[in-house]
Amino acid sequence: MISKKKDKKTTSPTLIHYLPIISSILVVLLTITIFLLAKGYRIDFTKGEVKYTGAIVVKSQPSGATVTLNGENIGRTTKSKVVESGEYDVLVNKEKYREWKKKVSVVEEKPTQLFPWLIAEELKKYTIWDSKQIAEKVWINENRDVGLILLKDEEDTYSLWKYKIEKGLFDITSNPTKIWTTDNPNIEISLAPDGTLALLTIKKEDNKQEIYFVDTSSFNVEKENPIDFSYMKEPQLSWSKDSKYLIIETETEIFSYNHIDKTTRVLMKKTEGKTHVWTTSKKGVFYFLEETSQKEDKVYLYTLEAITLKELYKQTMLKEISMQKDLKYINYYRESLPTPVFFTNSPINTQTVGRIDSISVDENAGIVLISSETSSYLYNIKNGMYVMVSPYPTKFGDLSYNNRSIIFYSNDIIGIFTFDKDELDHMEELGSKIFTKEKDVENIQWISNSRYLSYSKDGIIYISEIDGENEYEIIPLDNTYFHTVKYSLDGLTVFGNDNEGNFCVDEYRLTN
């Protein structure tokens, strides 16, 4: 019997068999590609390369400015562009405005944020107030938003005027406002930091003087009784930083004076032979150092005490501040300027050196500023750490509007110390940066965006970024008492005299 075998037909694999595998590979590749793109990478499929990228974001004031990147026009602000990491020349310009340019580094996976402030080429001048009278004296408050001007009237009388540099949105009062008339020009005024209250001193012909506590809105001197400090020996008067109290310092005590209930309270009694360091804060707190070290100790030991001016509630803010008495320790840091490293304080720490000369506390920024006979430091209230600002004696200036940086004067230079930053902003660095030599500029002030400063040098007002770049010449300082950039950034307010010598308030438009 013959058996017949059927031929078996062999088939080769088709595409349909590999589809699940191919799909899985494509999904993996697509996932990796999306991940890389989301992380800011670029994939060059022709060269088979993955390139590191970041982004440049340009937000100008005013907007609508043209942005040029390495010579290439990439559009108008607000503008962002993903680019490869590296160095770039950025140019921002707008018709009738001065150009802004900067060399920046773009790093991988992070945005490089730029905030150009464009200043008009031609500054239009507007006279806001033409008094047509001669100014005898001008006073400006610490916040630089209120001015009092004593003008000479025709018949041996003088009028005091109040001018608000920054008016509130719902403030419907006239500006300027005449608040007082007197026949005695021999007066001195100390304005509270916010300008709402003032200490008026009237000097009499018999070498006597009267001191009044007045509201700058009404200035009702006739309804007020003079404050009697005659029982105190050589009192030194100053305002608390919250603008509500007078601080009175004598040889033996420090008092607070409340103008509402006319009460004087003892804040601290002085110890003979000891230096007393104190300050106030915008939160209405009186701070003072209490030295606890003995003569034979190798370190100065202090506690930082706090007393609320309203309730007189006392508490210890810092239990121990140690400062080395041997001044040689500071020489090491002067020879090799330290990078900004935060550290804890203890009697064996050699970074904190010298007897403390002054302190300043800002609760909003969360810092304590300490100046000693040799150097200066910043204490971070939030994390309890210290950092050296300068290894030389220091005077601190104004805090920036964003509460991240402070101006300081040390070793003949003006510097900017940044103690807090936006983690996404890789261009901002913590620590000290030299701005210029102290002798080169005067009247340096923060501008409200905290990225620019105004100052005067060689008789001219300038504006520049805090790194000194994009410096713009604004106007000459001829016949001016005071100047400040408005919070809105659109104008420069100037107190000065016109060609006839009469007082006037002018505004120069920084934007068209």
TrEMBL record:
<dbReference type="InterPro" id="IPR013229">
    <property type="entry name" value="PEGA"/>
</dbReference>
<dbReference type="Pfam" id="PF08308">
    <property type="entry name" value="PEGA"/>
</dbReference>
<feature type="transmembrane region" description="Helical">
    <location>
        <begin position="15"/>
        <end position="38"/>
    </location>
</feature>
<protein>
    <submittedName>
        <fullName>PEGA domain-containing protein</fullName>
    </submittedName>
</protein>
<keyword id="KW-0472">Membrane</keyword>
<keyword id="KW-0812">Transmembrane</keyword>
<dbReference type="InterPro" id="IPR011042">
    <property type="entry name" value="6-blade_b-propeller_TolB-like"/>
</dbReference>
<feature type="domain" description="PEGA">
    <location>
        <begin position="54"/>
        <end position="114"/>
    </location>
</feature>
<keyword id="KW-1133">Transmembrane helix</keyword>
